[in-house]
Amino acid sequence: MKTYRVGIIGATGMVGQRFATLLEDHPWFHVTALAASERSAGKTYAEAAGSRWLMKTPMPESMKDLVLLDASKDIDRMKELVDFVFCAVNMKKDEIKALEEAYAKAEIPVVSNNSANRGVPDVPMVVPEINADHIEVIEAQRKRLGTKRGFIAVKSNCSLQSYVPPLSPLKDIYGLKKVLACTYQAISGAGKTFETFPDIVDNVIPFIGGEEEKSEQEPLKLWGKVENGKIVNATEPSITTQCLRVPVSDGHTAAVFASFEKKPEIEDIKKIWAEFEGEAQKLNLPSAPKQFIHYFEEENRPQAKLDRDLEGGMAVSVGRLRSDSQYDIKFVCLSHNTLRGAAGGAVLMAELLAAKGYMD
Ligand SMILES: NC(=O)c1ccc[n+]([C@@H]2O[C@H](COP(=O)([O-])OP(=O)(O)OC[C@H]3O[C@@H](n4cnc5c(N)ncnc54)[C@H](OP(=O)(O)O)[C@@H]3O)[C@@H](O)[C@H]2O)c1
Questions:
Q1: What is the extent of the structural domain holding 21?
Q2: Could you tell me what percent of the chain has a pLDDT over 70?
C-alpha cells in the first residue's frame, strides 16, 4: 500500500493529541505537519503541547520538534508538506466551515472531527462498517467546490457511536421504527480530565449542549441513501435521546430501547451481531477491529473501565439484551469516545478513503 504525508490541524488539543499517538506508527500515514491557533504557531510541538499533554503514552518522539503552523495563515505551506489533513479544532462553527473549505479548495483533503460540515448533503459522514458507500458523493462535492482532489469528509458525533452500530444490521432486516437512547458520557468528550473538571467528581450533570440534537439527527444521515450526488437522510426510525455527563474518564455508555416493524428474536440478534462486518473488515483496514460488535453474556458488562479499550478502543461492546415491556428490545452498549468515537474513527475513515483511491 502507498504511504501518505499527513497533517494534524488542532494538534495541541485533546483530539489532536489522540491523532498524534494513533499515527505514530501507522503503516500508511506519516505525520509531516502540525497546526493549531496563532497562539501555538512557531513553537515546537513539545513547547506548545508538552505541558498540557493528556495522553497516557508520551508525546511521539518523531513529532516533538515539528514546528506548529498557523492553521489559517499557513495553508500554502501545508500544501507543500502533506497529502491530506485531519482536523479537530475548537473554533466557532462558521469559522471551522470556512477553514475546512479553504483546505479543500487548496486541494488538501480534510478528514474532520468537527461538526460544522456534518449537515452538508454532499459531505460524507462515514462509519466504514455502516455506510462506506456514502463516500461516492465526494465527486459531486468536488464539482461544487471546483476541486480536483480536495474534499471534506466528516466523522459523526461520539455520542451515537455506541448505539448506531448494533442497531444498523437489525434495521436492515427487521425495519427499525423507534429508538430511545440515554447516554452516559465521559469527561474526555468535553476535552476534560478529573484534574481539569473537579465538579464532575461524585456528580452527574444532566445537560451537554447540542448533544441530544446530534444524537437524534446524525443517525438519520448515517442511515441515508446517496441520490444524485447528495445524501438524503433516512426518515425512520424516530429517535429520542437524553445525554448526561458522568464521572468517567473515557468511554460513552448508552441504555437503548428499540422497536421494529417485525420483532426480532433475542438469539437471532446475538447471531447477527456476531456475524456483522462491514467494508472496514472486508478491506482489512489497519485500524479496523476484527470483531466490530462484541456481545457480553455477563449481566454486569459492558463496563467503561473494563471494556472501552477492546480491540484498541475500536470495537463496540454490547450487553444486557432482552425483551422490553414497552419497546421490542433493550440493551446497553459502550464505545471509546476519543478512539472509535473521534480520532480512531477518523483514522479508519481516512484508511477507507485511501484504500478507495480518494487520497491520490
Ligand atoms: N466525535 C468526534 O468527532 C469528536 C469528539 C470529541 C471532540 N470533537 C471535536 O473536535 C474538536 C476539538 O475538540 P478537542 O476536545 O480536541 O478541543 P481542545 O482540546 O480544546 O483543542 C482545541 C484545538 O483547537 C485549536 N484551536 C483553537 N482555536 C483555533 C484557531 N483559531 N485556529 C486554529 N486552531 C485553533 C487549539 O489550538 P491552540 O492550542 O493553539 O489553542 C487546539 O489545538 C471540536 O470541534 C470537538 O467538537 C469531535
A1: 4-157+343-355
A2: 100
